[in-house]
């Protein structure tokens, strides 16, 4: 594990959130989809379950997507993360839950709006990545027909493809077929 458990989990949650409008159209189209996303990552605390909340999470998604677009420009990415920390009024405190017994940080009250709690925790995970000098782990899928984001948590930073569209397998199959075709041409 490169980062703490909660940081890695939050980085994965960010990728899934950002990718909800990058692959196969809008996947965060209604409150049920938002609930499913939140439940899949164990988000706790206040949920208003209204259109305002859904729109605010979509705006957060856009802000997070911009950070991936700026990953090659450390100063610009830092400015975006700092702005998100400021806008969410992040106030760190240690906690643990029965489902996550390790100590971890929460950065907003369970009573704060959902986008604010999510944004604070997501900004802090990105800050951990930046502090470790690992901003280059934020990548966009290398498949030519995909714009999904990924966080490369591999030991040697070699991951190139997202998990959303089977991109890695598709690219490997295409390369294999190209090699086979070339071998057939060479034999002829």
UniProtKB/TrEMBL annotation:
Pfam families: ABATE (PF07336), zf-CGNR (PF11706). Residues 137-180 form the Zinc finger CGNR domain. InterPro entries: ABATE, ABATE_dom_sf, Znf_CGNR. Gene3D superfamilies: Jann2411-like domain. It comes from the Bacteria. This is RNA-binding protein.
